[in-house]
Amino acid sequence: MIYLDHAAATPVSDKVFKAMKPYFTTDFYNPSAAYLPAKKVSADYEAAKATIAHAIGAKASDLVITAGATEANNLAFTATKARILYLETEHDSVRRVAEARGGKPIRVLPNGLVDLKDLRERITDETELISIALVNNELGTIQPLSEVSRIIREVKLDRMKRGIRKQLLLHSDASQALTLLDINVARLGVDLLTLNAAKVYGPKGVGALYVSHDARLHPLTVGGGQENGLRSGTENVPGVIGFAKAVELAKDHLNGNRKKYAAWRKILLSELKDYELINKKHALDSFVVICYDGIDAERLVFLLEECGVYVATGAACAASKGVRSHVLAAIGLSESQIAGSLRLTLGETNTMEQVREAAEMINDVVKKEKKFRAKRSMAFI
Amino acid sequence: MIYLDHAAATPVSDKVFKAMKPYFTTDFYNPSAAYLPAKKVSADYEAAKATIAHAIGAKASDLVITAGATEANNLAFTATKARILYLETEHDSVRRVAEARGGKPIRVLPNGLVDLKDLRERITDETELISIALVNNELGTIQPLSEVSRIIREVKLDRMKRGIRKQLLLHSDASQALTLLDINVARLGVDLLTLNAAKVYGPKGVGALYVSHDARLHPLTVGGGQENGLRSGTENVPGVIGFAKAVELAKDHLNGNRKKYAAWRKILLSELKDYELINKKHALDSFVVICYDGIDAERLVFLLEECGVYVATGAACAASKGVRSHVLAAIGLSESQIAGSLRLTLGETNTMEQVREAAEMINDVVKKEKKFRAKRSMAFI
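The joint structure predicted for all components is written out below.
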């Protein structure tokens, strides 16, 4: 089995699983209970939040734990009822909320980066929130958030001069970024940042939203008042303990993994044949998006599955619904290029051997598919 | 260690943990991915949902998986923007949402049961949703939901005769009920039913909302469109697999547990001394709520903690915030009765020996506390 779809899901690593286990079985107490063992669980939960927060240069009290990135993204948008801007290549959990609130898309350049000129032009005096993912989930494109926040600072300064008192917040979905980027909220200049345990070898169903002091959110759910009243419900203790462990491990292996994936990416790019590289620049090293124009990538996925190689065509969610990728369309790919695109995402389940093997198998499968297509088109003549 | 707070949290049972494990580590795929192992995970997830649904006489497609009961309760209330009625003894996750939407409380009788006369009188032609928990989380009171739904049917019939076309839905939070009650949505006559894995020896952070065909909900979060578009976000596969196993086990042991807890309750009631029983009738056998008028139950909790006995004063969430229980106030208890109330909730971590021991220790602690108080008041004379 060669799994090359780490952007869609990651396994819970052994160390993470081990860290979580006692909180399922022995330290299962409700953190709100009054007796000592429950208070210990509550303290462990807070310490885990502090670990996650620390990894992005924040404090535990800045984080709202959620059931995943989708909820965190939705929660981020409660910061305003006014004008929203979002990058046109955002994940559905940002796009759909933004659209529902009358948000307007910001264009990307053909290289996948945010068009800063377009961004600047679209910001009006009414704009209150801008959402741009740190790393795109289909291309791995790393957005220049500090440049975006520089523009935002300029706008704010200009507004101040003109006596306009309106917030202008920067939200970023960093779901795909934690494994390979050293994230610091102050350096990035973000007010709201989404994190996702499930993409960083932590458990599914756990995420977090970093919230700066400038942002005022409204809870999506009310009740017991947990998470400073922003997200009620008994805390998912094992989930958050696992999330913290996963974040810690990611930080520890950041540099090593970066080098490793860069080397593996090179191997893929040199050993694969007759492909077109889509995410040439500005992408996370773990993302290799390639295109076989004229070939149906969905058939490649099935053929590769038979060889035990698991890859994706577009974002997993979009793919299963039979919708063409809006991301690949946004960077200017043609219909047939989009249809022929594969996303390979490297990760901890892989070895260099596997990467070489995968390249070989992809080459084989593409060759076969081309032959098959040639034969079929001959038959029609 | 004698844990008598199973209404606040339950440990994940061994069988549940074992069922979950592979979905963390080996079967970790994103259910939306296109290759076979991911499709198998997706099928397992759907099968787990079917198991949960089956336990309440419903189909998998009737369930929306959530991050717990609080989210499920919040989601249930999206069924209407019109008039809501809720039982005054409801959990905060119902009360707060209902209040925020202008909902009006229905009274309970001194025995904790819904005042059906008050309910009938409060239903107007504008009422669209009524929320009454199947089992109260502080008293264990089992509400006569089928009688409530009979009244609702009468109202609907009357509305129909008068040409009033307005929905009238019954929602019930059944979080505390799954371990000891045989729940059937049709028999209960509910349109919306909240379930909670964490109260039934399943994992924290997982719940479900049963939604009948009559109810039209609006998602709290949008994105990838999972759960029929009602709750986006990558599915918490291990959580739901664990939830299903927990529900299955609960069903298997329903009768045995019912007998066991009934016997243990009798032991507690006969061996405890000088207490007043609060939930005399209509309560789940696992709930024993007692009162020592004039004594501070919070001190009892700490003294018992020193003996390794863990009990609660009120609902765990309310207790930690230092708020007096609105439930005990609603059934007419005085301030000093409320302050002297303990909630003991029996569960699978207990043995008959433990129950006897706990009774003895509670008696000891109460005796000591009474002596201490007598001494102190002497000192002031």
